[in-house]
From TrEMBL:
Pfam families assigned to the protein according to its UniProt record, in alphabetical order: Cpn10
InterPro entries in the record: Chaperonin_GroES, Chaperonin_GroES_sf, GroES-like_sf
Protein name: 10 kDa chaperonin
Subunit structure, interactors included: Heptamer of 7 subunits arranged in a ring.
Keywords: Chaperone
GO MF terms held by the record: ATP binding; protein folding chaperone
Job of this protein: Together with the chaperonin GroEL, plays an essential role in assisting protein folding. The GroEL-GroES system forms a nano-cage that allows encapsulation of the non-native substrate proteins and provides a physical environment optimized to promote and accelerate protein folding. GroES binds to the apical surface of the GroEL ring, thereby capping the opening of the GroEL channel.
Family listed: Belongs to the GroES chaperonin family.
Domain of life: Bacteria
Highest classification ranks of the organism: Bacteria, Bacillati, Actinomycetota, Actinomycetes, Pseudonocardiales
Amino acid sequence: MPDVKLEIQMLHDRVMVRISPEDGERRSSGGIVIPATAQMAKRLAWGDVLGVGTNVRHVKVGDRVLFNPEDQFEVEVQGNTYLVMRERDVHATATERTDHGTGLYL
């Protein structure tokens, strides 16, 4: 029997996110290079939304979201790692279709 492909559908208020790749070392706004090994305070991460459950109201597939990656569940699908979280764990979204926002852009 050939391998059957099953579509993943998120349930309730769950969101599936792929973490955006990080460049390792970063530059501060003043031009100082910060190595990847530098000790930082808790840092939020950006990710791309790949799936949402039926009760998710403010996040859509394709949005970029800001969240704490340490508090989420990881799942591996076909060798790729994704995070699953509740919509309430998303701190912000970056999208083209906003009616109001902070005035900051990615």
